[in-house]
Each structure stands twice: as C-alpha cells, then as structure tokens.
Amino acid sequence: MSRIWKAFWILALALPLSVFLVWGIWHNAKLFFITLLNGLTLASLYFIVASGFTLVFGLMRNVNLAHGSLYLLGGYVGYFVGAKTGYFVLALAAGFVAAAFVGLLMQVAIFRFMQGQDLRQTMVTIGLSIVIADLLLWAIGAQVHQLSAPDGLAGPLRDIPLITAYSKYRMALLPVGIAIGVLLWLFLNRTRVGMMIRAGVDDRAMLAATGINVNLVFAATFAIGAGLAGLGGVIGAVELSMVPGEDVRLLLASLIVVIVGGMGSVVGAAVGATILGVAETYGLAYAPTYSVVFTFVILVLVLAFRPRGILGQAA
Amino acid sequence: MSAVQWRNAMNAGAGRAALGKGLPGRGPGVSSRAKGAGDEIVERQTPSMWAAVRARHVVVLAFLLAFPFFATPFLTYQIGAQSLALGLIALSLTFLGGYGGMISLAQMTVAGVAGYMLAIFGASGEATLSLGWSWWIAVPIAIAISMLAGTFVGWLSVRTEGIYTIMITLAVGVAFYYLCLQNYSVFNGFQGFQRVYAPTLLGVNFRNPVPFYFLALACALGGYLLIQYVLRAPFGVALQGIRDNPRRMNALGFHVTAHRIAAYALAAFLAAVGGILLVWYNGLITPNSVGTSWLINVLIIAVLGGMKHPIGAFVGAVIFVLLQTFAIDLIDRERFNLVVGGVFLAIVLFSPDGLLGLWARLRERISTTRPQAALHPRRSKP
C-alpha cells in the first residue's frame, strides 16, 4: 500500500474518532469518562479470559471453543466457594483450579490423541462446549448467580475529579488485569517454561527434538490457559453475573479479541481487549441498539487491512 | 476421484486437440481411428443423465415421493419438511467445507438473513416494520440480499484459512445474532417477526403439510442436483483442487480467492432457499433462529451425516430432527442439547467422516472379509 493511501486511511479512522472525542467531552464529560473507565475495566476482564485463549491457540493451534464453558465453570465454582467461605481469594483460587483441572483433563484425555488435526480438535471443543453448558444448566439451573464483591472492594470510590464516584471493585480490575498481563509476559519471556512454550509456538517438532517433554509443556499450557478462563469467570461473577449464555458471550469476546489483536500473542490480546472493551462500552452508552455493529465494523476493518490481526505474525 | 477425473479429462482433451489437428501424410484409417477414439472420450465425458441413476436413487426418490401419502401429517411436516429445509442449509456447509475446505459457521446466519429479509419485505404480523410485498417479489429480494451477505462473509473469511475461518465466521454469526436481538427499528429485537407464512399459489395452500413437504422436497432435490452438477463442472473441480492444494492451483493460473468467494456465493444461495423454507416452516423468525446453538447445529448436521458426499447433509438432518423430536421420549426434553452434543462428540471422536464414513467403512469391511473367506476357505489349516 502506498504511503498516501496509508495516510488517507489513518486520517479516515482518526478524524471521526477525534471528532467523537471532542464532542463526547464537550457534551457530557462525566458520562464520557465513566464510559471510558467502564470500557477499560471490561477490557481487563476480556484480556484475562482471552489471554488464556490466545496462549492455548498460540502453542497448540487449538481453537478451544469450549473456552467460554470453562469461564462459566470457573465462575460457578468461584461463586459457590465464595458464597460458602466468604473469602474472595479462595473463590479466585477455586475457580482457577477447577477450570485448569478440566482443561488438563481435556488435553490429556482427548487432544493428545489428535495432535495436528486442527479442525477435528476444534469440532471436539464445539461438542464439549455444548455438553458442558448443558451439564452446568442441569446441575445449577438457569437463575442468575452474582457473587458480592469482597469487603475491601465493596462500595464506591469517592471524590474522584470529574466523575465523583466509581465502583472500587471495577477500579481494582484495572491493576489486576495489568498485573496478570505483566506476570504472563514475564512468565513467557523470562522463565524457562515460558521459553519452552515460545519455542513450541515457533516449532513444535524442533522443541521435541531437543529432548523436552512436549506433552508436559502442552498440558501445562492448556491448564494455565483454561485456568485463566476460570479466573476470569470468578472476576466476572462479581462484575457481570453468572447465567447460562455468558459462556457464548465471553467466547465471542475472546474470539474477537484474538482476531483483532493477533492470535497467539499476549500483547495482541491486550490491544484487542482494550479496543473491544472500549468500543463495546461506548457503543452501549451512546448508541445502544447498534453497539454490536461497532464491534463488527472493527472486526471487518482489521481483517480487511491486517488479516492476521494488529500484532499477528504470518504463520 | 474428482481430481483423477479432471486429470483424465484434461489429458483426453489435450490428446483430442492434438489428434484433431490431423496428421498429414497418414492414411485415412489412422485418422478415422483417432476420430473414433475422440468420440468415445467425448461420450464418456458427457454421459447421459440417466446413466448415473442407480437403483438406490430410484428407491430413495420413490420413497420420498410416497412418504407423505402413508405418513401422518405430523411426520410429513415436522420430520420430513423440516429435515429437507435444514438439510439444504447443511448442504451449503457440506459444499463449502467438504469440497471447498472452508468450514463456515455463518451458514445459518446467511439463511437467517434470507428469513429476516423475507419477513421485512414480505408480510408478517408486524405490520409497521414489514413492507408487505407479495411473495414473488420478496423471495427473490431475500435470496439476493442473503447471497450478498454470504458473499461478504466469504470475502471476509477467505483471507484466512482452516480454523481461522471457523473463528471469523462464528464471530460474524454471533454478531448478527446480537444485532437482531438489540435492534428494534429493523429487526424488531427479541420478538422478531411472527406470522410469516408460505403463500397460496394456484389454489394450493403451501402452509398445509403435504404441499409444503413437496415444496421443500423440490427445493432440496434442486439443491442436491445443482451441487452434484457443480461438483463435476470445471468450477467444482477447480474448487476441489484448491481445497487440496491452493498454492499449486494458484501456480496453475487459477484465481484461488475468486473461486473461494464464488463458492461462498453459491453456498449462500442454497442457505437462503433453506432459510426461506425454514421461516415458512416455523411461521416466524426470531434472533433465536440465528443464535449460536443454531449456528453450531448446522455444523452438527453436516458432520453427523458426513461431509464427503452431498447426501450426508440430508442424512444428518434426518437424524438430527429425529433426535430433536423424540429426545423427549428418551429423556427429559431439557436435555436435548446433551444428547445432540454427546452424539456429535462421539461422531467427531470416532468417525470423522460422519455416518456416511461409518457406512463406507462397514461396507468395506464386509466386502474385504467376504473375498478373503472365499480365497482362503480353510485358513485354520496351514
């Protein structure tokens, strides 16, 4: 693409955005900034869930369409543990462990025997997501489960300039999302296991040839990826709520995040989650009946200009 | 099978061209023999339409035609017509997935677009939103818009391959679902459109089970024959070549992207017809009709039957509809998803080619054990 076209497209994107920015702040600054905060906190939830998705995909080329079900499972487990014991940290741990365990089970019992058959693995995950969703509906029912925020984070945070008050819990999500992102980045880039995972992303066969137990690496990655979905579930159980159908919603969010951001890249997931979360929230606040259209337009634009996502690399 | 046929046809064509130029200096006998061989090839290339008809085709067709006359209206409508309509939508996926190598989960979305357009341009219970045009205007418009939508989905997703296609088409499909759910000014939100009925034509009310069954049968048969024809036409053969090796086809001078998008357009046509049938069958269209579960159900139907042959879509649809209808007798009605998900999982895990693959394997086993037994009648005795 020539430089002039590039400049034209950047302008075509930036101009309406900046017009909206100025108009939004001038029109109602409080609404604008609250929406921004809502978008960013939603983005951090999306990031936590989608980073697990992208991790699994990046290493194993396995589009785990049961990721949403793992989110739901983690959320329910977290809800019941949290409601029983009253400790939010315990709920988080339980959600993570439960989802990680189921993910591990899936990897060890099924996917290990289908290495390299991407399409078949994906179809298996579709079947699994239907079965898990229906089992959860059977066991728990269709009523809404919402976990209350932990004591330290309950209630609003007051006396913020411009927006006066904002939920402490949602505010806390921002650093939590960033922390998880940084930890994940450190894990992948600074530890030995992370090195193995990255090597596996680049060349699975070569990693095996160097004498590393690839199956173990795969199992560990799958468990971590699934666990992140479960962790996101517990967080979402407070922020949103747990009800059948949320699994599809979060699966869709994860899909769009990794498509937009670039598959298999944690940084890409962060970028994608930010774009999706902010766009979705602004859409809901300013044009409720068309909010999905914005998400869709973003998807189309990214696919049209960067088919592998903003930070995606050629496979 | 098709690749070999294609190669033979190409070789034969080249040979014929060379022979047709005539070989000066040779006797007339040689040239006439060459001409004869050429004619024979031509004859083999374009066999009579009836030569491909086997006894089993006649039996199945006779059964399908006679079905409404001995079955109850319930069976005719709920099982027969619904299977045919769903089968047509699944056929579009079989064509895309089995022969184009592109698994699109948005086929139900394309069908749903046709259904929504029919409800919006045609008549429905929502008089304020529907334009109320006659069916013979509304149906072509619905099919055209739906084909545009399907082509657009294709244009979007052919940039990617394999599992990426699944993800993107799923994202597009779910986005359309949420659009229908949230938008009240065009799609009437959660309620959708009620009372979208099949028309009365020449005194035949197509809302009645038997006429509707025959309408669905005609559409399904037309779609099936269309796909069978396309698969043998140069376009279909090229598409299968692209499925097997896109780079090579590209090197041979085929426009890979254009072929793929054209495949999406053709599949969209089938899905649109199926979608219109489905709307008339249900008498309504709601966001639920294009929800995630239905997006995936189309995949389940196609995979259940097997994607190696167009008939698999209809086999899968019959099984699916039977399961859906009679799961209530087997277990709790609410647990239908568990049954279907479990069956799907079992098929994907144990027989990736679906029921047709299972059948082929069974037949192969029978046919390989029988001659062996004949060849070695007393195997135990060395």
Shape estimate of chain B? globular
**Quaternary state, please?**
heterodimer
SSE string of chain B: HHHHHHHEEHHHHHHHH
Which term fits the overall shape of chain A?
globular
Q: Tell me the Rg of chain A in angstroms.
A: 20 Å
Structural class of chain B: mainly alpha
User: Residue-averaged pLDDT of chain A, rounded?
Assistant: 83
User: What composes the largest sheet of chain A?
Assistant: 2 strands, antiparallel
Radius of gyration of chain B: 24 Å
Which range best describes the helical content of chain B: under 10%, 10-25%, 25-40%, 40-55%, 55-70% or over 70%? Answer: over 70%
Which stretches of chain A are poorly predicted, pLDDT < 50 over at least 5 residues? none
Strand content of chain B: under 5%
**In DSSP terms, counting alpha (H) and pi (I) runs of 4 or more, how many helices of chain B?**
15
Low-confidence stretches of chain B are 6-44, 373-382
> Helices and strands of chain A, in N-to-C order?
HHHHHEEHHHHHHH
Structure summary, number of beta strands of chain A: 2
Tally of individual domains of chain B: 2
State the end-to-end distance of chain B. 39 Å
Let me know the average pLDDT of chain B.
Answer: 77
Q: Characteristics of this structure?
A:
heterodimer; A: 315 residues; mainly alpha; 2 strands; B: 382 residues; ABC transporter involved in vitamin B12 uptake, BtuC; two-stranded antiparallel ribbon; 15 helices; 73% helix; disordered C terminus
